[in-house]
Amino acid sequence: MHFETLAIHDGQTPDPVTGAVSVPVYQSSTFGRESLDSRPDFFYSRIGNPTRSALESTLALLENGRHGLAFASGVAAMTAALQVLKPGDHIVTGRDVYGGSYRIFEQLMRPWGVETSYTDSEATDSYAKYIRPNTKMIWLETPSNPLLQITDIQAISDLAHERGIIVAVDNTFLSPFFQRPLELGADIVVHSTTKYLGGHSDVIGGAVVTSDDRLHHTIRMYQGAAGAIPGPWDCWLVLRGLKTLKIRMKEHEATAFHLARALESHPAIARVLYPGLESHPQHKLAKSQMKGFGGMLTIALKDGLPAVQKLLEGTKLFVLADSLGGVESLISSPAKMTLGALSEQERQLRGCTEDLVRLSIGLENAEDLETDLMNALATI
What we know:
- By secondary structure, the protein is α/β, with parallel strands linked by helices.
- 38% of the residues lie in helices and 15% in strands.
- It is built from 14 helices and 12 strands.
- It has helices spanning 3-8, 50-62, 74-81, 99-112, 124-129, 153-161, 175-178, 213-226, 232-243, 245-264, 283-289, 304-314, 344-350, 366-377; strands at residues 67-71, 90-93, 115-118, 135-141, 166-170, 188-192, 206-210, 269-273, 296-301, 319-320, 330-332, 356-360.
């Protein structure tokens, strides 16, 4: 079946008791057992809940994986995926990685005995250079945040699997509609369902999808033991978002493309980073492994931070806010917001300079958004 059909139907059959076509919100912490010896599918909601089960089944299908697991946030999902490692193991990841991921690597995993190395670039050779005998995972974020760099998932997976290394991919920026890392050789896919999968800026959640039974067993055991699970209402909100994921992603992309082209020639802008533009350094790679280019774009302003401040203060439709992937357009300064907790030296190493502005393109009219940006840029 096609993607949009899976998103609406699979894992979400009408309720057998009432016939409700929308999966019920099973707001129950515990479930009755028929007898002392019975082991029903659902007995305690930390371990399993029917609403969460429907979400997990749908997430797995959309990523073309066998197993889906839902979590209370994207970083909770990432932390769960990293539980397949043990003290003494080593991770290789990109330099341009989400600030929350960096904090997990450095503030949680390193004290636990798992060290992370950061590559010089997104190139496969750069990842190969940092592999050690104890490297057990390569963590990819492609497109990356905020520089929208593209990494070759298939090439990295081939490289890793020759050495028995697990490949995990954060697919938040594209969603399974535009990219399916498992089909390109990855072992684990992670999402912040807060973003495009939920799609309405009204829920916090995360997900892990894998087809590997052993990895699934380890992560699922952690899910039940640690309990970083989403409540049934949060699961229902993400399920609702998935039903419209295809049409939303197509609109996000169409408007982002429109704005990227319009901004590329603006005299106040030094560069526009969007994988769909031919000027993007990895445009051909993006076309080869992605079915669309997403709704995120980053621009660099010629006059640096003063110009950034004027642009952020000048927009009326773009809301100055953290996060991304919702129906409303958001604007942010990566250096001062999402990566503001990092030292200036670390930001410079990552290429996260103060002249950058990150745009999450919503579902408003493209011409209205263009007018809003152009009016704000005129104040610089």
